[in-house]
Structure formats: C-alpha cells, structure tokens
Specification:
Distance between the termini of chain A: 25 Å
Oligomer: homodimer
CATH topology of the largest domain in chain A: Jelly Rolls
Number of domains of chain A: 2
Shape of chain A: elongated
CATH class of the largest domain in chain A: Mainly Beta
Number of helices of chain A: 9
Structural class of chain A: alpha+beta
Strand content of chain A: 15-25%
Helix content of chain A: 40-55%
Largest sheet of chain A: 4 strands, antiparallel
Largest interface: A-B, 44 and 44 residues
Chain lengths: ~240, ~240
DNA sequence: CCTAGTTTGCAACCAAAGTTACATAACCTA
DNA sequence: TAGGTTATGTAACTTTGGTTGCAAACTAGG
C-alpha cells in the first residue's frame, strides 16, 4: 500500500482459458452447470495492472464488473483535499464496481492495485444477460450487494458513534491473525497511514491512539509490529 | 418525528385488493405484465402501524421485504448510548429490509413509523421466487440496491471528510422545496434533533451550525422555519 | 554499504465537536 | 386559555481530533 500517484494504463492481455478454481472462487458463479459456466467464461475479459495503476477512477463512467483473480487492490474515495478513505481492501475472489454497473451511474470509488494484479471483467450487458438467464446468479448478486450494504451501514455507525480509538481497535481485531488469541499479530502489515485511511482519520491520530492502546495494555508495539496482548480488552474498547 | 419510545404491536389487517397505482409506484414491479402483477399481488401482505410503532428492530431476524404504501417512517441505527443515526426517511413507494432478506442475516436497522402507516410485505421465499421468475424484477432490485450503496458510500465520505456545517448545508439542500431557488423553505419540518440524527451529531451542534449558516447569509431562520436565502452559497458550503 | 524515500514518534497547538446547564419560546391538549 | 410538553437559543467548558513541524528509525535499491 502507500503507493504514490499513478497512471492508469492497463495491459489488456490476450484471452486465455480460465483456470477452473478461479471461477469457482467467484461467489456469483459457484454451483453453475458446465454450460452456464462456459457461457460466463466466454464473456470474461482478462486484464492486468501494475502496482499503483487504477482499474477505476471515481466519477468516471464505467460499465465493467470486475473480478479479482490475483493480487490485492484498495477501493477508496478521495476528498477534494486529497485525503483518501479506504472503503475496502480487495483480494482474489472479490468483485467490484457493482454500483456503476447496476445503477448505470459513474464509478463511486477509485480502485488501485497495491501490487501486480490480474483481473477479469464483464460488460454491463453481459452481466444483465447472465442475471436474467441464470436466476442463481441473480440470487448470489443480491446477496453480495446486501452484504456490502450491511458493511457500509456498520461503517456509518462507527463513524458516527465511535471514537478513533474504538474504530482502530475494531480494525486491529478484524486484521488479526485468525486462529490466534492473545499474542497474535496482524495478518498483513498495515502502515499507520493505511490504518488512518481505513478508519477515516489522520496518521498522527492513529499513532497517538496506538500509544493509548499500548498504555491500556491491549496491544504491544514491537519494532513497528503490532501484537495483540489482550484480545478481550481490545474487544471491549472497540 | 421526535417520537419517544414505542411498542411494536402491529395490526395485521385482512387482505384487501391493492389499488393499481400503488403497485405501479413500487420501483421493483413497474412494467410487469398483468399476470406477473397479480402473481406479485397475491403474495403481498398488508400491515398497518400507528405512529411510534416499529416495523423492524435492528438485530432481530426478519425475512420480510417491506413496501411503504402510506405514511412516513424513519430507518435508523441506535448506539449503545441511546443516540440514533437516521439513515433514511421512508415514504410511499420506498421499500426496506432488503439487506436481511437477501443476505439472510438480522435486520441491520430499526424502522419506526412517524405517523400512521400502511405497509405491504413479501416473505423472503416469495421474493426469491419472483426474482427468478421475472428477470425484470431482478434487474430492478439490483439497481435499487446499487443506489442504496451509492448513497451510503456518499454518507461515509461526508462523515469522514466534511464538518458538521457542510453536512448540515447538504441536508438542507436535499430537503429544500424542489422548484424554488432562493427563498425556499424545507419541504417538511425537521426538528434540530432530527437534523442532528441525520447528519450524525448532537442537537446543540446543529443549533450552533444553523446560527453560523445564518451569519454567513446562506439561510434565514424565521420563527423556527428555515429559509434558504442564498442557495449558491449554501452549495459551496456543502 | 549507502542513500533516498518512507514510515514512525512525538510534542505543542488549534479547531471542531460533544457536554452541561438553563432560560425561553412555541405547541398541543384538556 | 392554562399548563404541561417539546423544541430552541445560548454560553461555558471539556474532550477529541486535526495540524504543524521535525527528528529518528527503517527499508529497498543501487
């Protein structure tokens, strides 16, 4: 993360057969019949991006529904002042740009590659066709959209009711090593800048809050790695 | 608005034929064939609520997709501290509880009647059946969900980037009399408490911001009615 | 191994927003 | 219209969060 400015050149690579596991990993298309599956595959277009390149710029029209096959991206919204709020991190299996595809408006957020990335996309008309041809897909799509809505509602709630340190605590918890209880680190390294952009505040405030959390005994910061020393406590703070 | 606590008794009234205009006003079901229409109508259940009654409580399971036929409701999220954040005002033609119906989880928000209200609802299984039987419905539903997502993203952006006075200015603009330019009042009266709950702040802060806006010349407050005296300015502030 | 760029630590300060505490005005209902 | 209830106006104060400004620690590439 923490990439600086970026162009948006995209390398369109020649179509190449999809590996099965990928399509199966896309929530929209699990459990389709073989014919249906090839119907979908025939419409997918492959696309690769370098680190820092944008798949989508907020405000621009776009009718592509994207799927992440490889690599991670950030989906963010930018303020006039240049600050960014990261709404989601995208990883293989995720999709994005549903909003623009389904309501026909401009892209509501920018999506930028955090590392070399492979994407596939469908055009709006193909999506709608698949949607009406395969009801299962329609069902999966509505489920996915509903989940997104649920997450955003919870984000709104957090922003409006919780203080920075609570939002930070929650962020740490959702990024903690899964199995581990106490003593767990984060699954992937996040810079303070990243964390700030994810919970909607400034980097310095994150630093301050991290110190507070350390004071309280919930976490320990060891050579800029965050260790959760008291998960219970952290959950209470969140 | 500004209703106090409320029970949640609901009066289930005997089924009665839907007036055509209503069904036509529901975005999901416009443009259906007559048979399709009666297929939908046969599954709708009618429900009335008194002012202050809840159609839905956040956290409770619910598999009903609701449609507003008459009256207004507020859709809100409550904090532990009892503060509420109003996410949307619902009026005839609106629907709610898509999230729980489509992802199968608990209701993400509470919905409360602001006045006597008539609702219709469909059960989850009927919704899914209609969805797969009539592709047009699937398309309308995904469009509607996408619009909701767009609005929530914009709400998140506002909360994270804008100050209270900007959020308030925006709120006033979206509630201003439609046609009118300067000199326009609000379409419906909102108490400061309402406004505070809609932009995620405290009532006193709204009062303070209103004074600021009046100072700046964007609005005038005349016997607790808000008049927009300089729409341009208000738009800049937002 | 060295350097340029990135990330972090931290303090001091300022601005915004939340809180507390009342007084006053408007509204509704009996 | 009287009297209670709800909505407002406003000030003072506290807390949180945003900003500024560096210095130090780190890291990746050459």
């Amino acid at each position: 993360m923490a990439t600086s400015e970026a162009g948006r050149k995209a390398v369109k690579t020649p179509p190449r057969p999809l590996r099965r596991p990928l399509l199966e990993a896309l929530p929209y298309f699990t459990g389709l019949s073989p014919q249906a599956r090839s119907d979908v595959e025939a419409r997918l277009v492959r696309l690769t991006l370098e680190k820092g390149e944008a798949a989508l710029l907020e405000g621009e029209p776009s009718d592509r529904l994207f799927f992440v096959a490889k690599g991670r991206l950030k989906l963010l919204r930018t303020s006039e002042g240049g600050r960014e709020h990261i709404l989601r991190l995208l990883r293989p299996g995720d999709s994005f740009n549903e909003v623009a595809v389904f309501d026909g408006g401009p892209a509501p957020a920018t999506v930028m590659a955090l590392e070399p990335v492979t994407l596939y996309y469908l055009r709006r008309k193909d999506v709608l066709e698949l949607l009406s041809r395969y009801p299962v897909v329609a069902e999966q799509v509505t489920r996915y959209l509903a989940q997104q809505l649920r997450e955003l509602v919870s984000m709104v709630e957090d922003l409006s009711f919780k203080h920075v340190s609570a939002r930070l605590a929650k962020l740490l918890l959702t990024h903690a090593q899964p199995a581990a209880g106490n003593g767990a680190g984060l699954r992937e390294h996040l810079t303070q800048q990243d964390m700030a952009a994810m919970i909607g505040t400034a980097r310095e405030v994150v630093a301050r809050s991290l110190r507070d959390l350390e004071q309280s005994g919930a976490i320990r910061i060891d050579r800029r790695r965050i260790i959760i020393t008291n998960r219970k406590l952290l959950e209470e703070l969140a």
